[in-house]
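wait is this the right file?? whatever heres the structure
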């Protein structure tokens, strides 16, 4: 496979991936008008009076350890693939 065709294939694949990720929904958590329980309607909290969208309540004890371990592992695997490709590729004569 020629270098030009391989570059075009890589650019097409990355463009397709970016276009697909464009449609991934964002994590905007807002309270809908009819979704509140009756207990909260009687005595609204001080933070409910703020205008605009509100983020989801996560609480004080959010465990992010699995995300850190998974992200670090995937970053290491990606760096390993890059190092392997650079080492294997070397310099090649232009044809």
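ok assuming it is, sequence goes like this
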């Amino acid at each position: 496979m020629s270098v030009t065709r391989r570059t075009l294939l890589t650019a097409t694949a990355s463009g397709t991936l970016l276009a697909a990720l464009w449609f991934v929904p964002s994590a905007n958590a807002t309270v809908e008008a009819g979704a509140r329980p009756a207990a909260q309607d009687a005595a609204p909290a001080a933070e409910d009076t703020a205008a605009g969208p509100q983020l989801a309540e996560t609480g004080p004890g959010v465990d992010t350890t699995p995300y850190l371990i998974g992200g670090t592992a995937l970053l290491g695997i990606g760096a390993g693939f890059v190092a392997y490709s650079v080492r294997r590729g070397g310099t090649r004569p232009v044809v």
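The helical segments are 3-22, 38-42, 65-89. so i think its the right one actually
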